[in-house]
Design goal:
The protein has helices at residues 3-7, 19-28, 51-64, 84-103, 121-138, 161-171, 183-188, 196-209, 244-251, 271-282; strands spanning 9-12, 33-36, 69-72, 108-111, 114-115, 144-148, 156-157, 177-182, 215-220, 222-223, 234-235, 261-263. By secondary structure, it is an alpha/beta fold. It has one domain: TIM Barrel (Alpha-Beta Barrel), CATH 3.20.20. Helix 2 (19-28) runs parallel beside helix 3 (51-64), helix 4 (84-103) packs across helix 5 and helix 5 (121-138) packs across helix 6. The protein binds zinc ion.
Length: 284
């Protein structure tokens, strides 16, 4: 594995004009992984992907020749909802996301587990697990359903490794499931990353609760909010409350070599180039 493959740096890039456009940008940024939306993230229903776009995406991806591509689901989906109508709508939408990802031959679909909106953590975990299992059983083989940890804002589920472990256990489809860890969300939900000792304790907690082979993606975002603030606000690498040291420790951690590490920071003013340069400088 060369250094770039080891780092596996990527970014969430725009698909305006077609999913293949994101691959072109990944090539120009010299990325080794990529995250996209396969539909408008704030709409429930959208027309199917044009087969011409599927072909063009595959062509551009072959030219890129690089690593994993994952998608991120719509923000509207909430499998934890106690309301049957929203639960059903969410289930259908998640299935659609997995079908779109399979069509584009993506490696996985990142999903925020959901929110209990008053029904309580345990009830929501059971509900999310039931919905996710049904969706997995109906979805085409291929892309994994990747559950992302949350910052712990509101009634969101997935703020701790324990909650993620309960979800994985209750979904009971370990081969079809992955975990995505977002550095901003980890830190905001109370996991220290800024010091060698704090980072080691966080990773020990992770390993105590989850099989490391489940961790198939990282989101690299600095955090506007402080440790335990539960604030889900991403900052550019090194400019937030985490600072550069946490990212240096993560990039040097061989347990995560070759795992996609994707920026979800604001894109204006060529910030991706700056963030990527900072990360490459921090790399071992
Ligand atoms: Zn994220």
């Amino acid at each position: 594995m060369d250094l770039e493959q080891q780092l596996c740096l990527g970014s969430h890039l725009s698909v305006a004009g077609g999913a293949w456009k994101a691959v072109d940008e990944a090539i120009s940024l010299e990325l080794s992984s990529l995250q996209i939306f396969t539909k408008n993230a704030s709409r429930w229903v959208q027309k199917p992907i044009d087969p011409k776009d599927v072909a063009r995406f595959a062509e551009r991806r072959a030219e890129w020749g690089s690593g994993p591509v994952i998608s991120h689901t719509s923000y509207l989906i909430n499998l934890g909802s106690p309301k049957d109508e929203l639960f059903e709508k969410s289930r259908a939408a998640l299935l659609d996301e997995l079908e779109r990802a399979a069509l584009l031959q993506l490696d996985g679909v990142v999903q925020h587990p959901g929110a209990h909106v008053g029904s309580g953590v345990e009830a929501a975990i059971a509900r999310i697990a039931e919905g996710a299992r049904q969706v997995i059983d109906e979805a085409p083989l291929g892309p994994k359903l990747i559950l992302e940890n949350t910052a712990g804002a509101g009634s969101t589920i997935g703020r701790s490794f324990e909650e993620l472990a309960s979800l994985v256990e209750q979904i009971d489809r370990p081969d079809r499931i992955g975990i995505c860890l977002d550095t901003c969300h980890l830190f905001a939900s109370g996991y220290e990353l800024r010091t060698q000792k704090g980072y080691a304790e966080t990773m020990a907690q992770l390993e105590k609760n989850l099989d490391l082979s489940l961790v198939v993606a990282w989101h690299l975002n600095d955090s506007r909010g402080d440790l335990g603030s539960n604030l889900d606000r991403h900052e550019h690498i090194g400019t937030g409350m985490i600072g550069t040291e946490g990212f240096r420790l993560l990039l040097a951690d061989e347990r995560f070599f070759g795992i996609p590490k994707i920026l979800e920071t604001a894109k204006e003013d060529d910030w991706d180039q700056t963030n990527l340069r900072v990360l490459r400088e921090l790399a071992p």
